[in-house]
């Protein structure tokens, strides 16, 4: 955790309702690239003021997201079928980690901060986010812990929160997804986070399990289901914001609106394109379109075989140097599983 003597500005918090992933991705990209613009213009006549730390919270319409190291892999047919029937979107993102699901019932938090300003190493930053989520769960009497894999877990090898972070020049994007009352059936279509044998879990499932075992009050479980979980998720979101702010050393938080972020984009010429690629169409023949910004590319039936070896994947990964977040233009992906 950063030293309490750091004089950090208030954490600007953009709290969005259930949203399309593309909308949140664009807003995140504007703030992320604003930090990078500040770094690249220092010492020049075009220097801009240092941006404050930001945090975006939201939940998404159903979408499967893949980490940058999975860019060459075609999603499994079980996921592509959902795309073709317009039940879920698919996107390739620049974050670390492997495939995961985002949807209603989650609380997603994306800090956009300069780790150097907060005196955090990449590894410490991930631990700060994990500990923040553990403290949130403790508030609701859920015991959670970490393992050698990134994320937050409860007993019986059940994962309740996933973390996938992207760093460039020490600036963070993406973050953590906490399952509150998520429909866990969505995770059955994938090997979530690339971890075989791991069961994805939620706060609601954990509390219901405790209720069945006579270890939890019915009132708390019923509270989760109030107004389809909206009241409870709002409370969880507030706790997530508070704990992340403490973890990164910000004593104060300050709410902002999406219009403020969009104005920053207009002022500094930031489009909000952050390298996310979308699969827009798929049919039984295996044809689909990847869309990245204004570029549309159709891909054919030839796919990466399902039995692609780990060695092959590593060979691809090693072509990029993403180990030094200080290096200009380096990807800087924190190598954690989402």
From TrEMBL:
Domain BPL/LPL catalytic, chain residue ranges per copy: 49-252
InterPro entries on file: aa-tRNA-synth_II/BPL/LPL, BPL_LPL_catalytic, Octanoyltransferase, Octanoyltransferase_CS
Top-level taxon in the UniProt lineage: Eukaryota
Alphabetic keyword roster: Acyltransferase, Transferase
Sequence segments annotated as region (Disordered): 298-338
Record field: compositional bias (Acidic residues): 318-329
Uppermost EC category: transferase
EC number per UniProt: 2.3.1.181
SUPFAM superfamilies attached to this UniProt entry: Class II aaRS and biotin synthetases
Coiled-coil parts of chain: none
Residue ranges, compositional bias (Basic and acidic residues): 301-317
One Pfam family recorded for the sequence: LplA-B_cat
GO BP terms: protein lipoylation
Signal peptide boundaries: none
UniProt pathway annotation: Protein modification; protein lipoylation via endogenous pathway; protein N(6)-(lipoyl)lysine from octanoyl-[acyl-carrier-protein]: step 1/2
Single annotated GO MF: lipoyl(octanoyl) transferase activity
Family: Belongs to the LipB family.
PANTHER family, per the entry: LIPOYLTRANSFERASE 2, MITOCHONDRIAL-RELATED, OCTANOYLTRANSFERASE
Protein name according to UniProt: lipoyl(octanoyl) transferase
Originating organism: Orbilia javanica
Record lineage: Eukaryota, Fungi, Dikarya, Ascomycota, Pezizomycotina
């Amino acid at each position: 955790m950063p030293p309490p003597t750091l004089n950090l500005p208030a954490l600007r918090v953009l709290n969005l309702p259930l949203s399309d992933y593309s909308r949140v991705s664009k807003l995140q990209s504007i703030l992320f690239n604003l930090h990078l613009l500040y770094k690249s213009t220092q010492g020049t006549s075009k220097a801009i003021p240092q941006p404050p730390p930001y945090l975006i919270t939201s939940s998404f319409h159903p979408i499967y997201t893949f980490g940058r190291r999975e860019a060459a892999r075609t999603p499994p047919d079980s996921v592509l079928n959902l795309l073709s029937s317009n039940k879920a979107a698919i996107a390739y993102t620049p974050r670390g980690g492997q495939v995961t699901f985002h949807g209603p019932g989650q609380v997603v938090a994306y800090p956009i901060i300069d780790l150097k300003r907060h005196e955090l190493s990449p590894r410490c930053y991930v631990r700060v986010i994990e500990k923040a989520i553990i403290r949130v769960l403790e508030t609701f009497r859920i015991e959670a812990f970490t393992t050698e894999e990134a994320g937050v877990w409860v007993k019986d090898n059940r994962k309740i929160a996933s973390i996938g972070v992207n760093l460039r020049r020490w600036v963070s994007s993406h973050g953590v997804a906490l399952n509150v009352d998520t429909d866990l059936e969505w995770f059955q279509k994938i090997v979530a986070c690339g971890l075989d044998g791991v069961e994805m879990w939620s706060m609601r499932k954990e509390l219901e399990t405790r209720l069945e075992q006579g270890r939890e009050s019915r009132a708390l479980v019923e509270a989760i289901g109030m107004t389809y979980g909206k009241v409870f998720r709002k409370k969880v979101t507030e706790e997530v914001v508070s704990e992340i702010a403490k973890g990164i050393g910000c004593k104060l938080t300050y709410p902002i609106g999406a219009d403020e972020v969009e104005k920053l984009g207009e002022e500094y010429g930031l489009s909000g394109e952050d390298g996310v690629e979308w699969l827009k169409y798929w049919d039984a023949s295996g044809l689909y379109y990847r869309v990245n910004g204004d570029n549309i590319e159709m891909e054919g039936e030839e796919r990466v075989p399902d039995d692609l070896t780990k060695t092959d994947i590593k060979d691809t990964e090693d072509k990029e140097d993403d180990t030094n977040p200080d290096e200009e233009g380096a990807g800087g992906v924190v190598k954690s599983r989402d």
